[in-house]
Structures are given as structure tokens and as C-alpha cells.
Write a structure and sequence with these properties.
The structure holds two protein chains of two kinds.
Chain A (H helix, E strand, L loop, with lengths): L1 H23 L1 H11 L9 H9 L1 H28 L6 H24 L1
Chain B lengths: L4 E8 L9 E8 L6 H12 L18 E4 L2 E4 L13 E4 L6 E3 L2 E2 L2 H9 L21 H8 L9 H5 L1 H5 L6 H11 L7 H8 L13 H5 L6 H21 L6
Parallel strand pairs in B: 1-5
Antiparallel strand pairs in B: 1-2, 3-4, 3-5, 6-7
Helix pairs in contact in B: 2-6, 6-7, 6-9
Classes of the chains: A mainly alpha, B alpha+beta.
Bound molecules: iron/sulfur cluster (SF4) and FE2/S2 (inorganic) cluster (FES).
């Protein structure tokens, strides 16, 4: 109980900024990289994108874009599982959910810094 | 021509006597200007004097007549029969609370939670009466007025699935009232109250279902109070991590 007491605002904070990223930035990228670029509406060469992605600031941006929504997912997933009746398992569920997001964060870092 | 009637299916239950609650059907005169509470009073006066329920003001002020009407938490003094015509109308005790008898639920848990958030003005030092009242501008009043409209009817607790699942959650009205005093310019109790609102069983248990604000008969919007307290709590948490002196 006491660890929940101190860590709850942290996870909620990540959930909430992750939600902002997921709501405002992710749709833009879905449009750009899911539709506009593949369908040729915006002409950019793969080489140009490659070069962009190499830039440290862009890497930082991508990290925020990918990692934060994972915490949004984790928090929601945790409470969905609790709400469908797995209330007794709240501690392992929290570890599983936030743990997955942490693994995702590490993977993201690894891919970006490789 | 005989008078038109409407059917009420009312939950009856005497813990210790009955094995489980059961619905009893009553037929009452259908009057367009009657509310569900009038129908219950009619039953108690004319048909069955043992029917138990709470009420007082009949005008949406005292907050004691909350019940489930067709499955939705309502003030029965404000729920018109005509809105449920032709019936039948199901009247049950408020959900998520232990039943004392028939439609009467136990207030103990809510009262304990209400006390816990210290819903009164806290001053570090009271100023002497001779110095007069604490003045407040209309703008300062507007800040918290909405949250002060709560009549403690507990409809929001009956609507809250989180509270239904685990009643350790301090719940919508208690948070809204704690928040109301935090916003009051005359109050100095933020540092005492905020840790109670933002402990584990406080605002963080809320998953922002929002039903509390939907059923609230007074427009209090407890969900907004909870969300704003979360933002404040999270900010303070991060500040206290970044700056050793920030969280105090
Ligand atoms: S917040 Fe609204 S629904 Fe909840 S107890 Fe107060 S008046 Fe009733
Ligand atoms: S009887 Fe007072 S609020 Fe309904």
C-alpha cells in the first residue's frame, strides 16, 4: 500500500502526458507516414527520411512519440483488467502493465541509439 | 371512470429476517404532478405503513431521498411519475451501499469519508471575532461555488463503478468537497487536506468514468474536481522529486 501511495502520481503523470502525445501527435504521424508519404501526396525520398531520423533532436522526438503513449496504454490496461474483476490481482497487474511499458521504453531507446 | 394508476416495484428487505431483498408491487394513483416520493408516501399512508425510506425537504435540498429509480440513482423528490409513464417503475435502495431496511441505506462509510477530507475552513490562526469576518470577492467565491452546491445525496457513489468494486475509494463527493475547501480563499488547510485527497485510495483510484457528474442533481461535477486534483497531485509529486524542497 505504501509504495502505491508514493508511485501513483508518477504513473498517472506519465499516463496523462502519454495521452496528450497519443491524441495529438500520433494521428499526425498516422496520416503522414500511413497515408500521405506512401500514396505520394508528399514527395519525400526514403534517403531524406533516413537522414532526418539520424538527427539527435529527431531521435529525442521519436523517443517521446513512442515511449510516452506506452504508459498511457499501460495505465488504461491496468485499470481495465482491474475493472473486469481481476481486482484481487492488482499488484501483479500493475507490475505487468507498467513493466511492459518500461520494456517498450528500453527497446525504443535501443532501436534509436543503435 | 376509475382513476388511472401506475405500478411501483419497490424493494423490501429486513436484514436478519429476510434471506434476500425482494420486490413488492404496489399500485398507486397516477398523477402528473406526483414524484416517486409522493407515490412512496401514498403507499406508506394508505397501503403499508412498514415501508421504510428516508426523506425530508421534498425540494432537492436535504439530499436524503436518493434511490435507484429504474436502475438510475435519482432524488425521488425530483423524479416525476410522468417521466416513467406508463411504468412499472422500479424503486430500489441506492446501489453500492449496505441496506439497513427496505430503501434505507447505511451512511456510515460516506460520513467517515466526508470527515476524512476535513470539509471545513482550516486556519493556521483564527483571527479574533472583534476583527470581523473574512472577506471574499465575488471572483474568489466563483472559484469554488459550484463544488459547494453538494447536498451529500450520495447519488454519485451509487453511480460510481470504482466505488462499487472497492469501497476503499474515497469517492466523488468527498473529493469534490475537499477540493472545494482547497479553493476557498479563506482556507489555509491545503497542506493538510491535499495529502488525503492524493493518497492511494484518493483521486488515483478514479478511472474517469464520469458517471458521478452525469447523475449529480446539483451540477457539482465531482469528476472535474477529481481530475484537477490529479493534475495538482502529479505536479506536486514531480516537483518534489526534482526539487527536494518542492513538494512541501
Ligand atoms: S456531488 Fe452531487 S451527486 Fe454527489 S453527493 Fe454531492 S450533490 Fe449528490
Ligand atoms: S427529500 Fe430532500 S432532497 Fe429529496
Amino acid at each position: 500500500m505504501s509504495t502505491r501511495k508514493t508511485s501513483e502520481p508518477f504513473w498517472w503523470g506519465l499516463f496523462s502526458v502519454g495521452g496528450v502525445v497519443a491524441a495529438f501527435l500520433v494521428p499526425v504521424h498516422l496520416f503522414l507516414h500511413g497515408l500521405a508519404v506512401p500514396l505520394g501526396w508528399i514527395p519525400v525520398s526514403p534517403a531524406r527520411i533516413q537522414a532526418l531520423v539520424g538527427h539527435p533532436l529527431i531521435k529525442l522526438y521519436l523517443f517521446v512519440l513512442i515511449a510516452l503513449p506506452l504508459y498511457h496504454w499501460a495505465h488504461r490496461f491496468r485499470f481495465i483488467l482491474e475493472d473486469v474483476g481481476l481486482h484481487a490481482l492488482r499488484a501483479p497487474i500493475a507490475v505487468l502493465s507498467y513493466g511492459s511499458a518500461v520494456v517498450g521504453t528500453v527497446l525504443t531507446l535501443w532501436v534509436l541509439l543503435r | 371512470m376509475s382513476e388511472e394508476t401506475i405500478t411501483l416495484e419497490v424493494t423490501r428487505y429486513r436484514p436478519g429476517h429476510d434471506r434476500e431483498p425482494r420486490a413488492q408491487t404496489f399500485s398507486v394513483p397516477y398523477r402528473k404532478d406526483w414524484v416517486v416520493l409522493d407515490a412512496l408516501n401514498h403507499i406508506k399512508d394508505r397501503t403499508d405503513g412498514t415501508l421504510s425510506y428516508r426523506w425530508s425537504c421534498r425540494m432537492g435540498v436535504c439530499g436524503s431521498c436518493g434511490m435507484m429509480v429504474n436502475g438510475v440513482p435519482k432524488l425521488t423528490c425530483a423524479a416525476f411519475l410522468r417521466d416513467y409513464h406508463p411504468g412499472p417503475i422500479r424503486v430500489e435502495p441506492l446501489a453500492n451501499f449496505p441496506v439497513v431496511r427496505d430503501l434505507v441505506i447505511s451512511l456510515d462509510d460516506f460520513m467517515e469519508k466526508l470527515r476524512r477530507v476535513k470539509p471545513w475552513i482550516i486556519r493556521e490562526v483564527e483571527k479574533p471575532v472583534a476583527e470581523g469576518e473574512y472577506l471574499q470577492t465575488p471572483a474568489q467565491l466563483d472559484l469554488y461555488k459550484q463544488f459547494s452546491m453538494c447536498i451529500n445525496c450520495m447519488l454519485c457513489y451509487a453511480a460510481c463503478p470504482v466505488y462499487g468494486l472497492d469501497p476503499v475509494f474515497i469517492g466523488p463527493a468527498a473529493i469534490a468537497l475537499g477540493y472545494r475547501y482547497n479553493l476557498d480563499s479563506r482556507d489555509e488547510g491545503y497542506r493538510i487536506r491535499q495529502p488525503i485527497l492524493t493518497e492511494a485510495v484518493g483521486v488515483w483510484d478514479c478511472t474517469f468514468v464520469g458517471e458521478c457528474s452525469v447523475v449529480c442533481p446539483k451540477g457539482v461535477d465531482p469528476a472535474a474536481a477529481i481530475q484537477r486534483s490529479k493534475v495538482a497531485g502529479a505536479k506536486e509529486w514531480f516537483m518534489s522529486m526534482l526539487l527536494p524542497w518542492g513538494g512541501r
